[in-house]
């Protein structure tokens, strides 16, 4: 079982829709939770990070963390075609191999926002 | 702040050859990370430097891989005797401070081993 599970999609939505992206994880030692956006053949771009449980909002993006359920979400409001990309969740903490200095990523969810 | 840069952006090599990639982190970021990403997967951690010290290496990093960060600035990742399974995107990231949670990635080097 992977430490971080993420539905690979693809997820296709119409422009203006609210998008919900999710990850689950198994390691309770994770403390920081990140969302990255990756366009095809580019490096991941950090969207936002959250510490422990709670919500964080940045423009059209809202991140939620529920540590009790080991479940994190990213919501995108008023989605635009330019939001079409792969969204990766990532977590920091002591992984199965030890070490608190790396990110553990999900596989990414491919999102397409259509006109 | 020009961001993390990586060179080359693409590399095609024949099996058995050695390759070296370079990463220039965001200036004054003391932490530097290497990851590998294959198609349809998230990045996987390879190794991490704090200043010039290599503090952690993944079990994914076989003896054919070596990384350096002389003087705590740019870093190089070398792969010796490349194999077709080494074909992937090699990503470099950097962060400041004491945490790894705010990492900024470069554009990556795409390696194809024929």
Give the helix/strand layout.
The complex is a heterodimer of chains A (115) and B (114).
Chain A: E1 4-6, E2 11-14, E3 19-25, E4 32-38, E5 45-51, E6 54-58, E7 61-66, E8 71-76, E9 85-92, E10 103-105, E11 109-114
Parallel strand pairs in A: 2-11
Antiparallel strand pairs in A: 1-3, 3-8, 4-5, 4-9, 6-7, 7-8, 9-10, 9-11
Chain B: E1 5-7, E2 10-13, E3 19-24, E4 31-37, E5 44-50, E6 53-57, E7 65-68, E8 75-79, E9 88-95, E10 104-105, E11 109-113
Parallel strand pairs in B: 2-11
Antiparallel strand pairs in B: 1-3, 3-8, 4-5, 4-9, 5-6, 7-8, 9-10, 9-11
Q: What is the largest interface, and how many residues per chain? A: A-B, 28 and 30 residues
Number of strands of chain A: 11
N to C succession of SSEs of chain B: EEEEEEEEEEE
Report helical residue fraction of chain B. under 10%
Instruction: Tell me which oligomeric state these chains represent.
Output: heterodimer
Structural class of chain B: mainly beta
List unreliable stretches of 5+ residues of chain A. Answer: none
Biggest sheet descriptor of chain B: 7 strands, mixed
Proportion of strand residues of chain A = over 45%
Question: How is the biggest beta sheet of chain A arranged?
Answer: 6 strands, mixed
Structural class of chain A: mainly beta
Strand content of chain B: over 45%
Shape of chain B: globular
Helix content of chain A: under 10%
- Summarize the helix and strand pattern of chain A as letters: EEEEEEEEEEE
Radius of gyration of chain B: 13 Å
Supply the number of helical segments of chain B. Answer: 0
Total count of strands of chain B? 11
Shape of chain A: globular
């Amino acid at each position: 079982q992977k430490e971080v599970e993420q539905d690979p999609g693809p997820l296709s939505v119409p422009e203006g829709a609210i998008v919900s992206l999710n990850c689950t994880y198994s390691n309770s030692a994770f403390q920081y939770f990140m969302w990255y956006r990756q366009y095809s053949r580019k490096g991941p771009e950090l969207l936002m990070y959250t510490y422990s449980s709670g919500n964080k909002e940045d423009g059209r993006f809202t991140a939620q963390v529920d540590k009790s359920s080991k479940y994190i979400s990213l919501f995108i409001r008023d989605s635009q075609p330019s939001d079409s990309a792969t969204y990766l969740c990532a977590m920091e903490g002591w992984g199965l191999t030890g070490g608190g200095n790396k990110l553990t990523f999900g596989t990414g969810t491919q999102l397409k926002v259509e006109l | 702040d020009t961001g993390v840069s990586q060179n080359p952006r693409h590399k095609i090599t024949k099996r058995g050859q050695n390759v070296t990639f370079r990463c220039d982190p965001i200036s004054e970021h003391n932490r530097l990370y290497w990851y590998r990403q294959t198609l349809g997967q998230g990045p996987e951690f390879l190794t991490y430097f704090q200043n010039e010290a290599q503090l952690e290496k993944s079990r994914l990093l076989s003896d054919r891989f070596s990384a350096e960060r002389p003087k705590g600035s740019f870093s190089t990742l070398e792969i010796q005797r490349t194999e077709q399974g080494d074909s992937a995107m090699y990503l470099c990231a950097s962060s400041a401070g004491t945490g790894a949670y705010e990492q900024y990635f470069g554009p990556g080097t795409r390696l194809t081993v024929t």
